[in-house]
Design a protein that fits this description.
Elements lengths: L1 E4 L5 H10 L9 H4 L7 E2 L2 E4 L5 E5 L2 E3 L2 E4 L9 E2 L5 H17 L4 E5 L12 H9 L2 E12 L8 H12 L3 E5 L2 H16 L7 H10 L4 E8 L2 E10 L3 E9 L1 H5 L2 H13 L5 E6 L1 E2 L4 E2 L1 H8 L4 E11 L19
Parallel strand pairs: 6-8, 13-14
Antiparallel strand pairs: 1-3, 2-5, 3-4, 4-7, 5-6, 8-17, 9-14, 9-17, 10-11, 11-12, 12-13, 15-16
């Protein structure tokens, strides 16, 4: 097994592996990851088998003596394909940790890929982390509506939909990122004194690169946008990357109508609709009002766990595959 740091010459092979993986999304394509290369020192890993075929990749960046998977992405973790099995992942984790230790890395910060994004079961990495002694450091509460077990919309949200329709509001796909970014930026600044993670220029660039995956839906009063939701669409999930409404939009219940259309028309067949996290301060504070609003649309909590592994105290013995014959029936 061979572990190497990603280089630009690996881009085509990397992207091909992401495309056929069982838990990769478009966020891991290099065109997405590299848009913020100036802010992050890329330290992504490629793990190959004895025939030089890729067994897995780890999108990651280095911050001094720590490696994070990945500081510029919502989620990270090992991306694997159908060949990955439990015993192989123990070897992959062991070899990766030893590779990092040999290069002066003291800790691995691991942002797992929530299971709703998996096209097939892919939690071998979480078991390997447990055996390696990783500790849970953060737990975000995602609000997710599941298509195969739908829950009824709260009556309050239904009243909001009726109110928005009575006032003639409409919902449609929009290309007007600038108008939405103005609403979003004003909201974030007034509530949290911060701006969106992406600049308007960055999100425009990403939308142009991934037009089928990054979409803006707006709720309008005539030509005026009152609210918007930016969707990151993957194979199984429609994820709300950004949500915002201006004062008029809040008064006219624009988001109620917007989510009603997204859930029941645009993404009616999508297995999961992820409203995003409703937690702050590293997951230790639940924004109850925000979560209650999302639960009003039939969403319920799915956790997104982050871990940290101390590589100084780590012992390779913990990840040795158990080759003993099990009990017979």
């Amino acid at each position: 097994m061979q572990v190497t740091v990603y280089g630009e010459s690996d881009q085509e092979e990397w992207d091909e592996f992401i495309a056929r993986s069982k838990n990769g999304t478009f966020l891991f394509y290099r065109q997405y990851m590299d848009y913020h290369r100036g802010r992050f020192q890329d330290f992504s890993l490629i793990i190959r088998d004895e025939d030089s075929g890729i067994l897995g990749v780890l999108p990651a960046n280095r911050e001094g003596s720590r490696v994070v998977s990945h500081g510029g992405l919502t989620y990270g973790g090992f991306v694997t394909d159908h060949r990955m099995k439990s015993a192989i992942m123990l070897m992959v984790m062991k070899e990766s940790i030893e590779f990092l230790r040999d290069r002066g890395v003291d800790a691995l910060v691991y942002k797992s890929i929530p299971h709703i994004y998996h096209r097939a079961a892919a939690e071998e990495d979480l078991y390997a982390l447990f055996l390696a002694g990783a500790r849970l450091t953060r737990c975000d509460a995602l609000a997710v509506a599941l298509r195969d077990s739908p829950l009824p919309m709260q009556e309050r949200r239904k009243r909001g939909v009726r109110k928005a329709l009575q006032q003639g509001l409409t919902v449609k796909v929009s290309s007007d990122l600038a108008q939405f970014w103005e609403i979003l930026s004003a909201n974030l600044w007034s509530r949290y004194s911060r701006l969106p993670v992406h600049t308007l220029q960055e999100i425009s660039l990403l939308r142009d690169k991934f037009p089928n995956a990054i979409k803006l839906f707006g709720c309008f009063d005539g030509a005026c946008m009152l609210a918007g939701v930016m969707i990151y669409e993957t194979d199984r999930v429609a994820h709300t990357q950004y949500i915002a409404a201006n004062a008029a939009g809040k008064e006219k219940c624009a988001l109620d109508l917007l989510f009603h259309v997204l859930l029941n028309e645009v993404y009616a067949e999508k297995p999961c609709f992820d409203f995003g996290a409703s937690t702050e301060h590293g997951g230790r504070y639940l924004n109850r009002g925000l979560m209650e609003q999302k639960e009003g649309f039939g969403a319920r909590l799915v956790t997104h766990n982050h871990y940290e592994l101390d590589l100084i105290r780590w012992s390779a013995h913990a990840l040795q595959a158990n080759d003993h014959e099990g009990s017979r029936n």
